[in-house]
Specification:
By secondary structure, the chain is of the alpha+beta class. Helix content is about 50%, strand content about 15%. It folds into three domains: about 500 residues, no CATH class; about 110 residues, no CATH class; about 130 residues, Galactose-binding domain-like (Jelly Rolls, Sandwich). Helix 7 packs across helix 9, helix 12 runs antiparallel to helix 22 and helix 20 crosses helix 23.
Length: about 850
């Protein structure tokens, strides 16, 4: 799966986009730079997938329609394809830049050596795009049959049925379905590929500023991977990454407008196609960035017409009378105006048709854009981002936090250098008379400034992401300006130093974020997928773990999550809010009646589901509990905690509620024998502090630096035990028991920092008495995520022989005192008519 998603999939995407790009170029009737073809092909595939999913009956055929479109491009433009192949040496530098951009964007996954994605624990929006892409490819853009009582249906409806842009999702789903790849593992490679496509138009911009060869390749790589863009790619912000590629493609078309503008009526079709793809990917909000190239082209066209009119006016003036040359110039100017005017209609028609699903629900799409732009919810941003981040450099492992100390000084110095280079680059473009390109840069940055001034924290961050490549591209034009200076010795040295600073600052910033990334746990999600296959169609299923990605892996079980953004209304009380731990004891017994399945993480400290559920399946990470057919819910359910005396009193109070029927019983869930290692009293490095969540302090210990924690514990009897480690642990952490190496734990993460992850249990043989466990975090490593989450919440031990399916005890309600003296998680009162449970 790893090679299929990281190597085969991007190669297939490249061929799909190249074929579709050849068709788009042929539709425009003008030869464009070859580096633009993948981006244009992506735009064409977005348009096709949007239209095919708009018709529900065609939605499942989308992958094959995409393939047919690409093959048609290769067939109709085979001469052009052969030419590109024969001249591969001419495109070697740009191809290298694209490949490097893909490799760097996907670096955490590639270095991890396993199928995964890097947006884990940072933002759960990726889960929405996964289930959305899957749904749209299976059912199309029709939502009337959704079940809105559970989280899965609510997510699909509240996003995609209300005008949420889906252009990136449909092309992603179609391409992954074509190869039969799981969307969860293809998602990050897709984002990396789309970002790599941005290096193509960046190459055109670099060439337009005067750079060639390796200089242009370095520029295009840096333009595609500024620090803030790289951060959002690691978050798998597919809408923004796709829109960014379209923005750069439009800018590149502006830069080479003399090749296609005014040459024929069909000339602007590729431009309109890229514009439509941006609208489909980002919604009406793309208008701020789409208007800039339109105005730049309009200004260029008007200027060109005025130049031609002047040429016609003065042609033959020396003869003192209208000449044949003057008439020819006038006719040429009139024909040019007619072509430009006539080209508006095909371009407008292309824009209308290719983004039709967005235009068809424009009022809803506008409401979505307005909501995003004006929301007071900052999402995962604790504070607004800084404008300086648009300059491409941010020497911190997190784009949300400011650098400190020497890193902050270096960031400011590199940013100031980039700003000075950008101003110099603007002068360079004016000197080269690239007026249309200058206008595009100016209007793009002006649009970003206007949007950022009127938008709130969340939208402002997206604005900085979309404007950052343009700023970095201008800075590289400054490098071209230094190289063009007449001083033969100083010019190369100055240009090389500036280029090194720009590229080095960006790549160092990206490396820090690579080091701090958290990869999704591959084995756990594969196990969740096996549950989805095993129990498909037997839902709805309640998921007690905070994991919105489960909606994709369990997509055929109609998932409901009490702590998801959209919890089932009947179950919302089981969690303390979004992302908070779920406790089924908070629910009334009847609240679970409509859930045949409960999917739980294995956790020795977690409470067992109600007695009407029995264990159906269990593996290293998960348990699946099924509701017994015909079994009635208990009439009362009471959680038990505290001393045995206190538990006895609560059991007695529940027994008093019995009606005196002969069939009434009390069913209690036995609390497992549990040994908890006292981490608070453990010896640990001074810099290993405790994690804070708002004003509260959790028990978790942040292992932020290399070091070792040592703690003692006592087991009451010898034999086989299971040792459980809880926490968010991305880097490798070594465990040793009584001085002997035990295991290495890494990549064990849960959905967020509020819900500790429970790693699969480790089997150990212990003698009765006291033992010592050591937890060691090693020093610096180049491994992905070596600077990621490292929080130790708890270490627990349970006897290995305990089976959750036999942990119930039942007595007659009148004999409730028999339960006193024991330790229980909860007790239930079953109604007289309740069917007998098999305990």
């Amino acid at each position: 799966m790893f090679l299929a998603t990281t190597v085969l999939y991007p190669c297939a995407l490249a061929l799909l986009c190249l074929g579709a790009g050849l068709l788009a170029e042929r539709a425009g009737g003008a030869r464009l730079p070859g580096s633009l073809l993948p981006g244009l092909g992506l735009a064409a595939l977005i348009a096709l997938s949007q239209l095919s999913t708009y018709v529900a009956a065609l939605a499942p055929a989308t992958p094959y329609l995409m393939l047919a479109l690409s093959l048609a491009g290769f067939a109709l433009a085979r001469a052009r394809a052969a030419e590109l192949l024969a001249r591969w040496r001419c495109g070697a530098w740009v191809a290298l830049a694209c490949v490097l951009a893909y490799a760097l964007a996907l670096a955490p996954v590639l270095a991890g050596g396993r199928a995964s994605f890097s947006s884990y624990m940072a933002l759960a929006d990726s889960a929405v795009h996964m289930i959305g892409a899957d749904y749209l490819l299976r059912h199309g853009q029709h939502y009337a049959h959704l079940d809105l009582r559970n989280s899965y249906g609510q997510f699909i409806h509240d996003y995609y049925a209300t005008g949420y842009p889906s252009g990136a999702d449909t092309v992603f789903g179609g391409s992954a379905f074509l190869l039969g790849l799981p969307l969860i593992w293809a998602f990050q490679p897709f984002n990396a590929f789309v970002l790599a496509c941005a290096a193509g138009p960046a190459w055109v911009l670099a060439r337009a500023s005067g750079l060639r060869g390796a200089w242009a390749a370095a520029a295009s790589l840096t333009v595609a991977l500024p620090a803030l863009v790289y951060a959002y790619e690691l978050l798998a912000s597919v809408k923004e990454i796709t829109a960014l590629t379209m923005i750069l493609t439009l800018g590149a078309l502006v830069a080479c407008n003399r090749r296609w503008l005014g040459t024929s009526v069909r000339g602007p079709v590729p431009f309109a196609l890229a514009l439509a793809a941006g609208v489909s990917a980002l919604g009406p909000a793309f208008g701020a960035w789409g208007l800039a190239p339109v105005l730049a082209l309009a200004a260029s066209a008007v200027a060109g017409e005025r130049a031609r009119s002047r040429a016609a006016r003065f042609a033959g003036a020396g003869a003192g009378a209208p000449s044949l040359q003057r008439r020819r110039e006038a006719d040429r100017a009139r024909r040019s105006r007619r072509r430009l005017t006539a080209a508006i209609a095909p371009a407008a028609l292309c824009l209308l048709v290719c983004a039709w699903p967005t235009w068809a629900q424009l009022p809803s799409a506008l409401r979505v854009a307005q909501t995003i732009a004006t929301t007071g919810n900052p999402g995962n941003l604790h504070a607004p981002l800084r404008a300086i981040q648009a300059l491409g450099v941010w020497l911190n492992g997190s784009y949300k936090l400011a650098p400190a100390g020497a890193a902050l000084s270096a960031t400011h110095a590199l940013a100031a250098l980039a700003l000075a280079a950008a101003l110099l680059g603007l002068v360079q473009l004016l000197r080269r008379r690239a007026y249309a390109l200058c206008a595009w840069f100016a209007l793009t940055l002006l649009a970003s400034l206007v949007v950022s001034r009127t938008a709130t924290t969340w939208a402002d961050a997206k604005t900085l992401v979309l404007s950052s490549p343009a700023v970095v591209a201008l800075a590289w034009a400054g490098v071209a300006a230094l190289r063009s200076l007449p001083a033969r010795r100083l010019a190369p040295v100055g240009a090389g130093a500036l280029a090194l600073a720009l590229a080095g600052g960006v790549l160092c910033s990206d490396a820090l974020q690579y080091h701090s990334s958290d990869l999704a746990p591959t084995a756990r999600y594969e196990q969740l997928a096996s549950i989805g296959r095993r129990f498909a169609g037997r839902g709805p299923a309640l998921v007690t773990d905070f994991d919105e990605y489960s909606m994709y892996q369990l997509r055929d079980l109609d998932v409901g999550g009490p702590d998801f953004v959209y919890p089932p209304q009947a179950l919302a009380g089981a969690a303390g809010g979004y992302g908070r731990p779920v406790d089924l004891n908070r629910l009334s017994p009847g609240a679970l009646a409509s859930y045949p399945l409960i999917v739980m993480r294995r956790d020795p400290a977690a409470s067992r589901p109600p007695a009407v559920y029995r264990l159906l399946w269990q593996d290293s990470y998960y348990q699946v509990w099924g509701r017994r057919r015909g079994a009635a819910s208990a009439s009362a359910h009471v959680a038990l905690s505290g001393s045995a005396t206190r538990q006895c009193a609560r059991i007695g109070a529940l027994a008093q509620r019995a009606r005196g029927g002969a069939g009434e019983r009390l069913v209690a869930a036995k609390a497992p024998p549990l040994v908890r290692v006292a981490l608070r009293r453990a010896a640990r490095p001074r810099r290993w502090g405790r994690i804070r969540t708002g004003t509260a302090q959790r028990a978790g210990i942040v292992m932020g630096t290399p070091g070792t924690l040592r703690a003692s514990f006592t087991v009451p009897h010898g034999g086989r035990w299971q040792l459980w480690v809880q926490g968010q642990i991305m880097p490798a952490v070594a465990l040793s028991l009584d001085g002997r190496p035990l295991a290495s734990v890494s990549g064990q993460l849960d959905g967020n920092s509020l819900v500790p992850d429970t790693a699969p249990p480790l089997a150990v043989t212990l003698s009765a008495g006291r033992h010592t466990i050591a937890v060691t975090r090693a020093g610096f490593s180049l491994a992905p995520g070596a600077g990621g989450a490292a929080v130790l919440d708890a270490i627990l031990l349970t006897p290995a022989a305990r089976e959750p399916s036999t942990s119930l005890r039942a007595v007659a309600a009148t004999s409730w005192r028999e339960l006193c003296g024991g330790r229980y998680q909860w007790v239930e009162l079953t109604a007289p008519s309740a069917r007998e449970h098999r305990l």
